[in-house]
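Usage

Read records sequentially. Each one opens with the input sequence:
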Amino acid sequence: MTTYYDLTDGKEPTVDVLMASWKTIKEEILQWQSKIGKPILFTEVGWPNQETAAQYPWDYYRSADKPDPTAQANCFEAFFRTWITEKAVAGCLVWEWRSYPGQDIGPQDTSYVPCGKPALEVIKKYYRWEGPWRRFPVK
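and closes with the structure output:
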């Protein structure tokens, strides 16, 4: 399952706006999950570092010249706040994870890569969180 939903309908991508959108989406996903009886695995959790990230997360060409690290971080924050305590979720995989020497990353990089951007701090916070998703202790 991916996270490529329009979460703003053109509104400013604040955490509150994003959380309100996730509420309805979560209800629909959980209804579906209860019918199939299988855990949910989010295989692509990611938003491009762009001002249109929350409205068009699947379209990384839409505003490729307009980085918005706050919007990207807010998207991750709202996702984790929405799903981190949900026992029906088996986990999530961050898209797009690249980390190699000489990689051109940082706040001006408009790709999905969270490395070198505020979004990475959000991801770290929740990956270290001791909740239902945690299957192994953090050392």
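Summary fields computed downstream for this record:
- Helices lie at 15-36, 69-83, 118-127.
- The radius of gyration is 15 Å.
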